[in-house]
Structure formats: C-alpha cells, structure tokens
Amino acid sequence: MNATRQPTATVPVDLEKMRETVRALLNADGGPVLPEPPDTQVAVLTELLRGHLELMLREVETTVERLPDTITRYCALACVGEARGKLRAAPAARPGGAVAYARRLARVLAALCDHHELMDGEPG
Prior knowledge:
Helix content is 63%, strand content 0%. By secondary structure, it is mostly helical.
C-alpha cells in the first residue's frame, strides 16, 4: 500500500506581531531595551512570548519536515531544541531574573522568526 502524505495545515503566523513583542525587550542588536519595563509588563510580555514560541515551534517543525537535509534544516532544528529548553526553564529567583528570562525567550523567538523566513525561500 502506497500512502501519500497530506500537507499539514498550519496556523498563519504574524511575524510582525512576534517581532513587535521582541522589540519591547530587545533592541535591533539583540541587546536589552532600557529602561526595563515594569514587572507587570514583563509578566505579560513573558506570556506573550511563550505563546508566540509555542506557535512558532509548530510552524518551524512543520516547515522543516519538507526540507531536504541541508544546513538550513539542521540550524532550524537546533534552534527548535534551544527554544524548547528555554520554555522548560524558569526565571531565576533573584532581582532582574524575570526580565532576563523574558529576554532569553525574546532572543530565541527572534531566531525562530529568522529561520521561518529563511525556510520560506527553500525548495521543498
């Protein structure tokens, strides 16, 4: 029996909204935006970042399945692993721990967005 694989439907991602969330914590060079946002805003941004990451992880994993074995594919998979590790981690219980954690999430989300855009142009 020869089964054909059906394409997996994915939810459209709003890369601009994701990058806007990243920009609330990081400047264009990936450094921290100062002054730091208040703790209540950091908590909201962290939850937004976590949601964006969950969506982007599924999107990148679905996209990477159609790619041949290339450096682009393996780099995207490494970034997926990094993002999963960041999601499993928790903020450090010290002053500034919550904002540092949010910034780590923001950096890995920015990287996943970059991989997603790069893979969009890859032949499948």
